[in-house]
Amino acid sequence: MRKPLIAGNWKMNLLCSQVPAYFQTLMQSLKGKPGQRTVDILLAVPAPFLSLAREMAERDGLLIAAQTVHEKAEGAFTGEISLPMLLDLGVSWTLVGHSERRQYFNETDRSVALKARAAVERGVTPIVCVGETKDEREKSLTETVLRRQLETVLAELPRDADWVIAYEPVWAIGTGLTASDQQAQDAHAFIRQLLRQHSGEHADAMRILYGGSVKSSNAAGLFKQPDIDGALVGGASLDPLEFARIIDSMS
Ligand code: PEP
Known about the structure:
By secondary structure, the chain is α/β, with parallel strands linked by helices. It has one domain: Alpha-Beta Barrel (TIM Barrel). The protein has helices at about 20-30, 50-60, 85-90, 100-105, 110-120, 135-140, 140-155, 180-200, 215-225, 240-250; strands at about 5-10, 40-45, 65, 95, 125-130, 165, 210, 230-235.
């Protein structure tokens, strides 16, 4: 059985001074108590909040992730954050290859694969984001794009690597458009089949999250799909009450 994972991605939002109140509201609103939770809850927060968020998350039984990481351990890479820096803060998760990183910061399939490999080698779990653009979907290229993005990563990782995939159709991110339950399930089933070809039975233990305008009003239908193991939630994770409702619809 795969334990569901609901991840929030704050992107470049909120302030460090708002972190304590966010955690307090989230924890008060969640139905399940920390020891009884059947869902993993993760927040990918801006780098300046990592240390504080990690402390609070430890107390509340949540996981904290960086939003991106550099593949090199150190060096002249101004502005970047390394895996040893994350580990030094007690952070052992990171997003990799979010479509906004690919679109605005020129991340490529290759650089995403190198980041994922470096993370796995250091014991940091990468949540690797993949997904097609609107144009690619309209040209029926969804599976071609997913195959290309994932095979580049799979070529760098051991068969039994500990990582998570987030299927995030670019046309659904921050647009209010969500893939239908069936569109999402079809893409997830395709991804799992690709994983099976590379990793055999390990594919059945791997979590594949859906991302793209997930809200409490559409979460339950998505979560019922057999290959959807949770969500990566952007905008709706900024409101702790709404994020709690999404988490509770998986529990
Ligand atoms: C995301 O940031 O990964 C995302 C899916 O954003 P949103 O939920 O706002 O579409």
